[in-house]
Amino acid sequence: MNDVVRHAVFFIADISGYTKFIFSNEKDISHSQMVIRELITTLLDEVNLPLQLIRIEGDAIFLYAIKDDDDQSWEQVSKHLVVNTMALFRVFTHKLTELTIHKVCNCTACINIEALKLKVIVHSGRAAFYQVNGHQELTGTSPIVIHRLCKNSVEADEYVLFTESAYNDLAPTDLAVVEGEETYDDIGTIKTYVHYPPEPGPYVPSPDAKPPTIFIETLREEVSREYAGVALNPELGFHFHTGKTLTAMLDYRDEWLEGLPEEAIESFAGMGNPFDLGP
User: Is 234 in a helix, a strand, or coil?
Assistant: First the structure.
């Protein structure tokens, strides 16, 4: 699709609480970024055609679906888009539960995983689609409006906000909505329909499911950072650390490890500085 103006439905799935989730402590920042990456990946895995990704925007994904001129065909597509939108909340919540169950760290980021929420903004209108170096780009008032709506007066942390145009295009009549409006100086007043999704069913892990690799990656990153530091000073040599010796070297505070199984702590392993073995 090159340099063409089309009518489309736009979606922004935005992780609420992201700013509060990022802390100044280096370890917290590292862990929080890994969690956000895992959640974004989970959302993307749930996106199905005709819904397509425009771009990842930090803690959000920007999606679109071209509106078909065939009313009968669009009726089926619109139902699919509504189902797909609601499925994002289910997989997001279940991933949060999974990450909480399998966490191996009690740093500020890891213990606050469940505080993250999801909001989805939906707007429809015309936009110009074009290619830049092989990447899909778009311009027009519709992309501006949907991004502006990410800052709104809805007090809840988890919801779907449809603009009037999106609500009319998708006709999500099975969803209970609260009518409202948002006003912006340069855009004017936009009528909205807000749906508050119910809690999804309980997370039931598959008996064959493996724990997420995110926390293995977390430990690997910390060990790699320490290893690189020692590598810059070869005369110190190397030493293999495990368990509490390693956690002490990596500055894990006692309260971060409280409640973790002893076998989990003792499974930590990595290369480090033999002259700084920890207490």
Answer: helix
pTM of the model: 0.76
> Could you give the CA distance from residue 148 to residue 121 in angstroms, rounded to a whole number?
10
Ordered by where they begin, the domains of the chain are 4-195 (3.30.70.1230), 214-272 (no CATH)
What angle (nearest 5°) sits at the alpha carbon of residue 125, between those of residues 6 and 120? Answer: 120
Q: Which amino acid is at 174?
A: D
Which tops the pLDDT comparison, 127 or 227? 127
pLDDT at 63: 97
Question: DSSP alpha helices (H): ranges in the chain?
Answer: 18-21, 26-46, 71-101, 108-111, 141-148, 164-170, 214-231, 243-249, 254-257, 262-266
By CB atoms closer than 10 A (0-12, 13-18, 19+), residue 184 is middle
* Torsion sign (Cα): 122, 127, 129, 132: negative
Between CA 216 and CA 72 the distance in angstroms is 49
In the chain, the largest separation of any two C-alpha atoms, in whole Å, equals 74
Confidence at residue 202, expressed as pLDDT on a 0 to 100 scale:
81
pLDDT tens-digit map of 158-178? 999 999 999 999 999 899 999
At which residue do the structure tokens 């909480």 appear?
100
> How many residues are listed for the chain in this entry?
279
Residues 6+ apart with CB under 8 A from 102: 211, 212, 215
- Residues 208-233 pLDDT 10s: 766 666 666 666 666 666 666 666 66
Q: CA 104 to CA 99: how far, in whole Å?
A: 9
For 176, the 3-state DSSP assignment is: coil
Tokens of 262: 């002893």
Q: What is the mean pLDDT of the chain?
A: 82
pLDDT, tens digit, 9 for 90 and up, residues 97-121: 888 887 766 777 777 888 899 999 9
